[in-house]
Specification:
The structure is a homodimer of 167-residue chains. With 167 residues, chain A is mostly helical. Chain A has seven helices and three strands. In chain A, strand 2 and strand 3 form a beta hairpin. In chain A, helix 1 packs across helix 2. The longest helix of chain A is centred in the last third of the chain and has 30 residues. The radius of gyration of chain A is 21 Å and the shape is elongated. The interface between A and B is large, with 52 and 53 residues.
Chain lengths: 167, 167
DNA sequence: ACAAACTTTCAATTATTTTTGAAAGTTTAA
DNA sequence: TTAAACTTTCAAAAATAATTGAAAGTTTGT
């Protein structure tokens, strides 16, 4: 397989993976493209490589910047803007999980807390509901913290040991 | 908030969360409904509670069973089928992650391996591509194993300590 | 073997999400 | 201040995904 083919395959695959996880295909593709580029890429080039419109490129670049995983860059003497992606994968994971947590998990947790604290009366049905949603609340809260905790842990010896075991 | 309202809120929220993570809304809603039901529910009742068609209910129940997180149940003297959800949340997490890994991550890993092993020639561009996709391959492989590893770890003392720290 | 009581399938419809492209907006240099 | 070079916005169009409903399929009791 030659370079161009490999690059294209990677971008397509990353795009497909993204859309299966609720991230728009173009957004994932732009990110993929920037991840494997050794230098900043212009909007023009992104449009050209992915065969997408200017509007689409603009909106998805904005979204990627809002997620904090793509940055604008300016080149001396050039008028147009260039873009680079966060390339440190640990950093990338942390940022994505922070953002999804903030946008999706936290609001869901709020609702879970609300519904799990209703008066359960005496019916088995209602008791089961309260019990199950409480457990779910605890579980989601715990899961939501895992990545953050792992980053913290990374600084201490037990963390390092654990990380080693994961490899 | 009274029970019925809480239940509905929960089902809606779980459905919305599902669709943000690439799981069809109805599928997540049916799962939510079954999770908080203390007894098995018929297709008829699911249709009624979620206001969906028979075809939709049937297809999504099949999908949930394929994922291994919903089971058919038969009641003596009843002709129709009833459904229950996996209620143990650790078990649920393991099954979902196994399934998504099998369907989505593993195929992506295969491609990542392919594209990261091309001949890099001498250009900086190609070297960077190989380097970055290799790192990504390792990272995804590692992340893909985390949940499995955690379940294994759960059985030993270090694991228990670690799990405690997560809480 | 028949028919009642169910479930599944899938082509057509509907809903949702994404993408386009052209107009409006912004910045820079002269 | 003007105009060229560039970016953003957003209503309309296109693409994709989910849903319906009725026909076909299955199972069970008589």
């Amino acid at each position: 397989m030659e370079f161009k083919e490999a690059k294209n395959k990677f971008v397509q695959t990353w795009g497909a993976l993204g859309s299966q996880w609720g991230i728009n295909k173009t957004m994932a593709q732009i990110h993929a493209l920037l991840m494997v580029s050794n230098e900043a890429v212009s909007m023009e080039d992104i449009m050209e490589e992915l065969q997408i419109s200017r509007g689409n490129a603009s909106m998805n670049l904005r979204a990627l910047m809002d997620w904090g995983i793509v940055y604008k860059e300016f080149k001396a003497g050039e008028r147009k803007e260039f873009f680079t992606a966060e390339k440190d994968l640990d950093e990338l994971a942390v940022k994505i999980s922070r953002e999804r947590s903030k946008r999706e998990i936290k609001p869901a947790l709020k609702i879970l807390k609300e519904v799990s604290t209703i008066e359960a009366k005496d019916s088995a049905e209602e008791k089961h509901f309260v019990d199950q949603t409480s457990k779910l609340y605890d579980f989601v809260l715990k899961a939501d913290n895992v990545l953050d905790k792992m980053t913290e842990l990374n600084d201490n010896w037990l963390g390092k040991l654990f990380i080693k075991m994961m490899k």
